[in-house]
Amino acid sequence: MITTNPIVEENLHQIARAIIDLDRDKLMTLLTDDCEIQDVYLKSIEVKREEFINWIFKRHNEFIAVEPVNYRINICNHCEVGSRVILFNEGRFPFLSWMSKSVSYAAYNVEKIGGFFRLSFCFNYTGCVQKGFFERNKAALIKADEIGGDVFELAKDIFKRETGQNFEMPENPEFLERQKKLDEETNWDDSME
After folding, report:
1. Mean predicted confidence (pLDDT) in 144-148
2. CA distance 160 to 30
3. Which long-range contacts (CB under 8 A, 24 or more apart) does 40-47 make?
4. Domain 6-122 carries which CATH code?
5. Among 180, 100, 92, 154, which Cα is nearest to 129's?
6. Residue spans per domain, the chain
7. Where does residue 109 fall: left (phi above 0), alpha (psi -120 to 50 degrees), or beta otherwise?
8. For the segment 101-115, what is each residue's pLDDT rounded down to a tens digit?
C-alpha cells in the first residue's frame, strides 16, 4: 500500500487551490523558481516562478470559457511511481495538445525542494489513457476532408472548444533561419548555372 506524508498531501491541495483561486501571493510562497509550462510552440519549458504564475493564470482564464477548473490528487505511474500528482480537469488543464503531440493529458508532478515545491508535467498517471489530438478527433477530421472541408480550420475550432485558446502557430525563428539559409544556398546555386 502506498502512503503519503499528510503534510505533502495538504501542500498539494494548497497549490491546487491557489491555482484555482488565482491566488498569486500564495503561489509565490509555495513554488520554487523553476516550474514547467508550455511556450508559444507548445513545447514544455522551465520558467521562473513569476512567469509560471502568469502563464497558468492566463490558461485558467482561457479554460474557464470551456468549463470550471477543478482538481483531484492522483498517483504517478512512470517517472515518480507512487508519488502524488495534481490532476486538473482529468488532465485537460493546463496542458495544451496539438496535432504534433502524441499525448493529450497531463497532471502536475510536485517535487519538494527545500521549503518550496517544483511543478513539472506528468504524462502517465493512474487512469490516464493517452491519445494525441488527431487520434481523439480522427473521425471528424477525416469526414471534413472527405467532403472537401477545411481540415485545418476544423482542427483549430476543436482546439478552441477543448482548451479555450485560439491556435495560431507563431513564426518559428529556427525554421525561418533554416529557410533563409536554404533560400540563400538555392539562389547561389542558381547564379552558378
Report:
1. 93
2. 31
3. 40/170, 41/169, 41/170, 41/172, 42/96, 42/97, 42/98, 42/100, 42/101, 44/121, 46/120
4. 3.10.450
5. 92
6. 6-122, 133-180
7. beta
8. 888 999 999 999 888
